[in-house]
TrEMBL record:
One Gene Ontology cellular component annotation held by this UniProt entry: extracellular space
Name of this chain's protein: FAM69 protein-kinase domain-containing protein
Keyword set includes Secreted: yes
Keyword Manganese: no
Any single Pfam family the record assigns to this protein: PIP49_C
GO biological process: cardiac muscle cell proliferation; regulation of phosphatidylinositol 3-kinase/protein kinase B signal transduction
Residue ranges that the Swiss-Prot or TrEMBL entry lists as coiled coil: none
Localisation per UniProt entry: Secreted
Species of provenance: Mustela putorius furo (European domestic ferret)
Record-stated family: Belongs to the DIPK family.
Keywords: Secreted, Signal
Sequence ranges assigned to domain FAM69 protein-kinase in this UniProt record: 206-404
Signal peptide: none
Organism taxonomic ancestry: Eukaryota, Metazoa, Chordata, Craniata, Vertebrata
Domain of life, per lineage: Eukaryota
C-alpha cells in the first residue's frame, strides 16, 4: 500500500465500502429468503440437486442419503445469496450415517460452472429438437448419449474416442475398466455395457463427455493406492467425494522439513502415474497448487481435481507399435509467464511408451523456481536452508527437471531428485 498514491488508496477503500454496503443491502432485502435458506436443508431438495434432469445427470447412487437429510451444508454454504462467488460450484458439507454416529466432512461438486451446465442443457436440446430449451428427460434418448442403448455389448473406443481427456486415446482395456467399476449402477463389476440400464448408460456417457473426473476416481480408486480423492456417490448433478484436507497452496510457507516431504510425495505421485504394474500411464494435464490437498493427520498428498487426466495404455502402444513408439519423449519447457503453464501434445502422449510429462509438470509448476502461483514464484522448495543452498545440488536437479539442458536429462534428474528428497525427508 505504500506504493499506492493517497488518492488512489482512498478511492480503493471507498469502492470496497460501497461494495460491502451493497452486499448488506441485498442481504436485508432478501432477509426472509436468507433466513429460510439458513434453516432449510436444500441438499434434500430434488430440484436443488437437479435430480429432475436425469438421465442428463451424473448418477443417483447417493440420492437416499441426500433426500433423507444425511448430507448438510457447512455454515455459509447454506446461503444461496453467496452462490455468485462460488464460480466452480464446489461446496463443503457434513455427512453422517445414523448407525455410525458423528459426521464426516465431504466435498460436493456440480462438475462445472452454472454457465457450463446451462450450455450442456442447450447442447442436448439443440441436438435432440433443434431448440435451445426442451424437456431433458425426453431429449436424452435422441442424442449420441443414447446410441449405445439396447443390447449393445461393449463400450468401444470408436464410440467415445476424443470425448474428453480421459478417452482421448482409449483402449478397450481402459473402457472395460470404466464400465466394470462404474459406481452409479447396482450391477457394477461387469464390463458388459448391456448389463446397465439405458438411463445408466446415458449417465455414464454424459459424465464421460462433460467432466470425466468421477470416472477417473472410480476407475483408479484410492482404496487401491491411487493418489486420488475417494469417490462417494452422486445424486442428480451433485457429486460427493471425501474431504482430503487443506489445499497444497496453504503449505507454501510451511517449515522446510514439511515442504521437502510434500515435494518428495509429489515426485512419487508423478512416478506412480507414469510407471505402474497396470501399464496405464495417467498424465496430469492441469497441474497447480489448487489441484492437490494434504491430509491433516497423515500428511498425505492427494489429487483433488482429476478432470484433466489423459490415460494412455502402454500395453496397447507396445502392441500396435505406432511410429517412434519406443523413442523417449521429452516435454518442452514452457516459459509462458503465466500461472500453471504446460506444453504437451496429446497425440504424442498417446503414442509413446516412455514419457517424462508428469515429472515435467510437477517440477515446472510446483517445485522449481519457475513455478508461479497467486503472485508468488520460487515453487514449494523456495528458500532452502543455507547448507543446502550452498551445496547447489537441489537447485541443479530442479532446474534440470523443469528445463533440461541435456538430452533425456529430465528422466535422470527426476530419478535423482526423488532419491535426494527421500534422503532429506528421511523417507528412504
Amino acid at each position: 500500500w505504500r506504493l499506492v498514491p493517497p488518492k488512489l488508496g482512498r478511492l480503493s477503500r471507498s469502492l470496497k465500502l460501497a461494495a460491502l454496503g451493497s452486499l448488506l443491502v441485498l442481504m436485508v432485502l432478501h432477509s426472509p429468503s436468507l433466513l429460510a435458506s439458513w434453516q432449510r436443508n436444500e441438499l434434500a431438495d430434488r430440484r436443488f440437486l437437479q435430480l429432475n434432469k436425469c438421465p442428463a445427470c451424473f448418477g443417483t447412487s447417493w440420492c437416499r442419503r441426500f433426500l433423507n437429510g444425511q448430507v448438510v451444508f457447512e455454515a455459509w454454504g447454506r446461503l444461496r445469496l453467496l452462490d455468485f462467488l462460488n464460480v466452480k460450484n464446489v461446496y463443503f458439507a457434513q455427512y453422517g450415517e445414523p448407525r455410525e454416529g458423528g459426521r464426516r466432512r465431504v466435498v460436493l461438486k456440480r462438475l462445472g460452472s452454472q454457465r457450463e451446465l446451462a450450455q450442456l442443457d442447450q447442447s442436448i436440446c439443440k441436438r435432440a429438437t433443434g431448440r435451445p430449451r426442451c424437456d431433458l428427460l425426453q431429449a436424452m434418448p435422441r442424442t449420441e448419449f443414447a446410441r449405445l442403448n439396447g443390447d449393445v455389448r461393449l463400450l468401444t473406443p470408436e464410440a467415445v474416442e476424443g470425448w474428453s481427456d480421459l478417452v482421448h486415446c482409449p483402449s478397450q482395456r481402459l473402457l472395460d475398466r470404466l464400465v466394470r467399476r462404474y459406481a452409479e449402477t447396482k450391477d457394477s463389476g461387469s464390463f458388459l455395457l448391456r448389463n446397465l440400464k439405458d438411463s445408466e448408460r446415458m449417465q455414464l456417457l454424459l459424465t464421460l463427455a462433460f467432466n470425466p473426473e468421477p470416472l477417473v476416481l472410480q476407475s483408479f480408486p484410492s482404496d487401491e493406492g491411487w493418489p486420488f480423492a475417494k469417490y462417494l456417490g452422486a445424486c442428480g448433478r451433485m457429486v460427493a467425494v471425501n474431504y482430503v484436507g487443506e489445499e497444497l497452496w496453504s503449505y507454501f510457507n510451511a517449515p522446510w522439513e514439511k515442504r521437502v516431504d510434500l515435494a518428495w510425495q509429489l515426485m512419487e505421485i508423478a512416478e506412480q502415474l507414469t510407471n505402474n504394474d497396470f501399464e496405464f500411464a495417467l498424465y496430469l494435464l492441469d497441474v497447480s497448487f489448487d489441484n492437490f490437498a494434504v491430509g491433516p493427520r497423515d500428511g498425505k498428498v492427494i489429487i483433488v481435481d482429476a478432470e484433466n487426466v489423459l490415460v494412455a495404455d502402454k500395453r496397447l502402444i507396445r502392441q500396435n507399435k505406432p511410429e517412434n513408439w519406443d523413442v523417449w519423449y521429452e516435454s518442452k519447457f514452457d516459459d509462458c509467464d503465466k500461472e500453471a503453464c504446460l506444453s504437451f501434445s496429446k497425440e504424442i502422449l498417446c503414442a509413446r511408451a516412455t514419457v517424462d510429462h508428469n515429472y515435467y509438470a510437477v517440477c515446472q509448476n510446483l517445485l522449481s523456481r519457475h513455478a508461479t502461483w497467486r503472485g508468488t514464484s520460487g515453487g514449494l522448495l523456495h528458500d532452502p536452508p543455507s547448507e543446502i543452498a550452498k551445496d547447489g545440488r537441489l537447485e541443479a536437479l530442479l532446474d534440470e527437471c523443469a528445463n533440461p539442458k541435456k538430452r533425456y536429462g529430465r528422466f535422470q534428474a527426476a530419478k535423482e531428485l526423488r532419491e535426494y528428497l527421500a534422503q532429506l525427508s528421511n523417507n528412504v
